[in-house]
C-alpha cells in the first residue's frame, strides 16, 4: 500500500490510500456511522479528482471506516434544516448531488465496497458507483419515508435503472433493509464477500480491471450511461463514433496485436484519460 501523505491523517473526513492500481477513499466518521457532511463531500470530490488526474491510478474504491459504509445524512443536522429558507435547503442537497454526479461521470471505474450497511444518501452514493462489492451480512436501505422524507442523491433514478419498478417502489415506500445477497440475486451487487472482506474483494476486482485499457473502460462507461436515455438509433450513433475513435488508438493497436499473437495485451499502465469525465 502506498500512503498518500496528509490524506491518511486518521482524523481527516475522507482518508486516501493507494493499493496498487486502486485508490481507496474511506469515509471517516465512524462515531456517526460515516454520516455525510460538507467535509465528507469535499474529501470525496478531491479524491475523485486526484484519481482522474493521476496516471498511476486505474480505478477507485469507496468504503466507510470501521465496518459501516455510510448512514447517509445526519438526522440531527437534518432536523435543523426546517429553519432555513427553501433555497438554502436546496443548496445543501445540491452538495450531495454534485458528489453523485462526479461518481457517475468519473473517467475511471468506481467500486463501492459495503460493510455493515448503506442507508439513505449512503445508499444513493453506493448505487452511483459502477460496481458494488458487499459483505454478505450487509444491506442497502432507502428509508427516507420512515423520517417523513423523500429520496435524494439520485436514489429513485438509480433504483429504476437497476431494478423492476415494483421492487424499487417497495424499497422506497417501505424503507426496509434489503440484504446484499438479495440485491446480488437481482444483479445490483456484483460480488458478495465474506463479512469483513468487502475491501479485499473490491481490491481484487480493481486489480482485474487494471489489466484492461483504461481509455476503453472510460468510453464504455460513457456508453452505458447514455444507453438508458437515448433512443436506439442515437445510441447506435454514439457507439459508432466511440468505436471509430477507439480503432485509431494505441490501445486498440496493442489489443488487436496481442489477440493475433495469442498473448496478453500490454496496455499503458493506468494512463489517465485526456478528459476529466466520461460524458
Tell me the span between the first and last alpha carbons: 31 Å
Helicity range: 40-55%
The order of strands across the largest sheet is: 1-2-3-4-5-7-10
Number of domains: 2
DSSP E strands, number: 10
Order of helices and strands: EEEHEHHEEHEEHHEHEHHHH
| Unreliable spans | 1-6
Range of strand content: 15-25%
Q: What does it look like?
A:
By secondary structure, the protein is an alpha/beta fold. It folds into 2 domains: 2-209, 2-enoyl-CoA Hydratase, Chain A, domain 1 (Alpha-Beta Complex), CATH 3.90.226.10; 214-260. It is built from 11 helices and 10 strands. The strands form 2 sheets. The chain has a 7-stranded mixed beta sheet with strand order 1-2-3-4-5-7-10, sandwiched between helices. Helix 1 (38-53) runs parallel beside helix 3 and helix 9 runs antiparallel to helix 10. The protein is globular and about 65 Å long. Belongs to the enoyl-CoA hydratase/isomerase family.
